[in-house]
Specification:
Helix 12 crosses helix 13. Helix content is about 50%, strand content about 10%. The protein folds into three domains: about 250 residues, 2-enoyl-CoA Hydratase, Chain A, domain 1; about 180 residues, 3-Layer(aba) Sandwich (Rossmann fold), CATH 3.40.50.720; about 210 residues, Orthogonal Bundle (N-(1-d-carboxylethyl)-l-norvaline Dehydrogenase, domain 2), CATH 1.10.1040. The chain is globular. The structure holds (S)-3-Hydroxyhexanoyl-CoA. (S)-3-Hydroxyhexanoyl-CoA binds next to strand 5 and helix 3. One of its GO terms (biological process) is fatty acid beta-oxidation. GO terms for molecular function: (3S)-3-hydroxyacyl-CoA dehydrogenase (NAD+) activity; enoyl-CoA hydratase activity; isomerase activity; NAD+ binding.
Length: about 675
Amino acid sequence: MTAVHITIEGAIALVAIDNPPVNAAGFDVRAGLVAAVQTAADNDAVKVIGLYAAGRTFVAGADIREFGQPPKLPLLPEVCDVLEASAKPIVCVLHGTTLGGGLELALSCQARVGIKGLKLGLPEVNLGLLPGAGGTQRLPRLVDGATALGMITSGKPITAQAALEAGLLDDLQDGAPEDVARQAARQVLDGTLTPRVTAAQPNRLTQEQLDSFRAKAKGEVMVRALKAAEASSLPMAEGLAIERALFVEALQSDAHKGMKHAFFAERAVAHIPEAQAEARDLATAGVIGGGTMGSGIATAMLLAGMPVTLIEMQADRVEFARETIARNLDGAVKRGKMSAEQREATLATLTCTTDMGALADVDLVIEAVFESMDVKRDVFGQLDQICKAGAILASNTSYLDVNEIAACTKRPQDVIGLHFFSPAHVMRLLEVVVAKDTAPEVVATSFKLAKKLRKIAVRSEVCDGFIGNRILAYYRKSTAYMQLDGAPFEQIDSALEAFGFAMGPFAVSDLAGQDIGWATRKRLAPTRPEEERYVEIADRVCEQGWFGRKSGKGFYVYDGKTRSVNPAIAEFADAERAAKGITARSFNDQEIVDCYMAAMVAEAARVVEEKIALRPIDVDAVFLFGYGFPRHWGGPLQYADITGLDVILSRIENYAKEDAHYWQVPALLRELVAAGKSFNDLNKNH
Ligand code: 3H9
């Protein structure tokens, strides 16, 4: 089967792109398009070409899998030039999500007709790139400069209606792409649709518009995209050459490698061993616990259209849970996610009660009660009695042993961990924790649920903290060690914020509540090995009742939206150093980043080695979508690949000279370095 077919119907040549799933403009499509235009050119009867795509969308971009491979001619910019130079006008019919190179193909045609529901965009910046097939040159010749710059720099798609109003589309119609293409071609023939060559249109980008976008531009990706757009003031061929050079430069950047990896990570995690199992039906859900987490989970379910029965153990908290959920839904109305009427209708599908018996008929229950095995044991014992056969019993525990929880029931095959991240109706990550007896169809159903909730599910085996919190618990210690050794905590935060984290680790723990880490430290104290370094500064902070943002003070002091350094912290650090005979030394920002990242990579490698995560890319997805990891680094293990595994290994070996207990080289890292392989090579084995 070829990726492009041509059908001649008298004066009309209909050219169809057919390259499932998203009609990406890979080699077959590019070569096929050039051949089809030539066939039409050679046929004297043909006067107009109708170009469209089969399947769910017009071309959704260049084929991202080809980036980094040896280029195969014709390249997309050349195909666009061929379309633009066609003596027979080409009317392009767009549907679905016409993105990146797909939109660039359309821009090169002589007319564009959209099909209702269409979205159009240039998402290249999300991959660390810029439009590289004429998008930065042709778009400002069709639409107002501000609209063009908005699309080029934000990567966000616009609606068909907005595109029509901006002049990007000549018309908006309804129907199957093939029929609309035939109809639009007829309109060109009868003169009701006037073709025009984009390159011949005047550039509408002004210097003021460029300056205003430049003032807001952050980072090399945006700067490069704006530079290309600026070249649209030059003659077309010169502008295209500048765009091409910048695109090639972007293709080689680390930011592109990281962001491309992040794109595939989001999708790769769905490939699980249980994917073929038949998922159970999920129509109704129960949530136990009406705190922030339980209310957030209930909100997520309601937003996905699932009626929810929420059980709050304490009668006086039932109303509070309902109010929290109502407030969450207000937020969804404010963000334009639902109308006020939809909010009312949705809220009507929520039942809040203290009666566990109300869960008898639900298809799924998610428990989000206090993190104590005794409490969970009691809850799951009750669920086992109450719930119908086949109901999925899930725990939102963030570190407890799901095998032990499952053992409290006579149906361990139905028990699973579903670890949401707070706020649960906003955060995209869902860790799906598979216990030893969990049935494959329960895993498959959990992944289906994640899709319904528009979340990214990552499969994890059972261990303390699962993938994310286990790695977090390890690398967080490195920040305490650096602090005690002399790095001010605010320098650690600012160095990591400059690396790309939205918030440094001390600011994050202030936000989460210092008492959470304190409880974990106390829980783990009895099993802490004697040779492990222990830093007490955070305990001193908690002993003052300074639990972070919620108490107005933690490592920082909070005044409205501003934060300042809590001066007591340096005193705590000095006192602990004096007691332990440590002389403070200074750190530079790069040392801080190197040490923090080496710790993260070390534990992440162990998580892969122990098969807690299916692949390195699963760990990357957890950090990208649950822990605010900078997208341009692609995740901790992609960062390690970009930095070089030999470099990371030698850093760990060096640190181990100071603290051989904490800094142990993961066997997997050593093996990969010896074999000259990367973490990404392990992703390819699946
Ligand atoms: C570009 O165009 C550069 C040019 O300016 C210049 C060139 C010179 N390539 O997301 P889904 C795969 S840069 C290859 O689950 P949905 C995807 O991996 C590109 N593969 O579906 C998945 O595979 P699998 C600019 C692609 O319905 C499968 O298709 N374009 C591509 O939820 C289904 O994808 C973009 O950045 C691709 N371009 O969403 C658009 N796209 O099943 C990127 C998808 O094996 N794509 N795949 O895991 C998207 O945003 C979404 O895929 C889309 C559909 C909205 C289209």
